[in-house]
């Protein structure tokens, strides 16, 4: 990557993340009796953006990234990119029909296998733990709502 571009991108995303956090404080805290209000997602997104941009700035300033002047041209992998974009679109389209847990599990499993083939056991475990963990955390702990399982599975 180009260090100059990464530096400017890091600063820009840091400012956008700070704006998300700042403006999310103006949104109402709770709606419809849920403990999870509409301010949670933008604030979480802003915090995540701040953390990722801080990491990008750190890596850029430490000089671990290769310059564009080094002569290496990055290899573009359109096949993997297309598979992941298609999977993301299918995931979003069928989320309510197949539920969050099953949909997220399948999407993550496919994504892990597209990125790195093999290691099925690790992919299965991480996909399952993430899907069930996030569902439990959001629905049980934060008392939010997500489409859990499809109705044809009779699991809830």
TrEMBL record:
Residues 8-147 form the DUF1468 domain. InterPro entries: DUF1468. Pfam families: TctB. The chain crosses the membrane at residues 40-58, 78-94, 100-115, 120-138. The keyword Transmembrane applies. Keywords: Membrane, Transmembrane, Transmembrane helix. The keyword Transmembrane applies. It comes from the Bacteria. This is Tricarboxylate transport protein TctB. It comes from Paenibacillus pasadenensis. The lineage of its organism: Bacteria, Bacillati, Bacillota, Bacilli, Bacillales.
